[in-house]
Amino acid sequence: MLKIAVYGKGGIGKSTVVSNVSAALARQGKTVMQIGCDPKSDSTRTLTGGKPIKTVLDLMREHKDSLSLDDMVVQSKSGVFCVEAGGPIPGTGCAGRGIITAFEQLESLHALEVYKPDVVFYDVLGDVVCGGFALPIRQGYAQKVCIVTSGEMMSLYAANNIAYAVKNFAKHKYAALGGLILNAKGIADERALVEKAAAEMETKVIFELPRSPMVQEAEAAGMTVAEYAPQSDMGILFSELAEKLTEAPHE
After folding, report:
1. Known catalytic residue at 173
2. pLDDT, tens digit, for every residue of 190-224?
3. CA atoms of 30 and 58, how far apart (whole Å)
4. What is the DSSP secondary structure assignment for residue 138, as one 8-state letter?
5. One of 30, 40, 54, 185 is an active-site residue; which one?
6. Quick one: which of 82, 93, 96 has its CA closest to 43?
7. Is 14 a residue of the active site?
8. Domains of the chain in sequence order
9. How does strand 74-75 pair with strand 119-125?
10. 58, 71, 118, 127: which is the annotated catalytic residue?
11. Which residues are within 8 A (CB) of 238 and not within 5 positions of it... i.e. 6 or more apart?
12. Annotated catalytic residue within 9, 38, 123, 144
């Protein structure tokens, strides 16, 4: 079972990348689980027809002790098992603590043992790396961390913070830094900027995704590109990225 945590600054397209890779792997016959770890709870939206699913924390508030895996895990049409951790009621608690609570609930019900995914993706907000948001990096949840970034300054700043957090946990034999995924925004010399930043983080750019209207077109239809137009240029790129993430050795 390969477990990968994907981080990135809010709005960088991280969930779009993860969802397309999940759908591409499902098309290849892999069993995939995607766990959204953002309080916005929109990680899996394009996998589930553009409609949000109930979050683990919302379900816990509603059902308390009677919660089952069938309540929390929704299988998309493409076959991906989708989970949204959720967050606290706005203004009432810590989003990081909410992720910890959701993970504990999934563990107590043995979600990974029941569904036996070949690949698990943790889609994690990277603007802050507090204890909750850092959870997939530590305690054996993920073996590898990949960071989605563009050449924008704040995106690279967030990527650097995440890389620093991963390296801080390295001495405990937790997740390794697997590299940067460049989700291009059309900035001048963008590839060179990101490669320079990657070198400073002592990692590398493992893949580049160009800007494409196909992504917005697919999302408007409530789908991933991997489902909407798998043979398009972007569909093929997401499939190649899926293979890269699952075949590349750990650093």
Report:
1. no
2. 999 999 999 999 999 999 999 999 999 999 999 99
3. 29
4. S
5. 40
6. 82
7. yes
8. 2-147+212-243 (3.40.50.300)
9. unpaired
10. 127
11. 17, 20, 21, 23, 24, 209, 224, 225, 226
12. 9
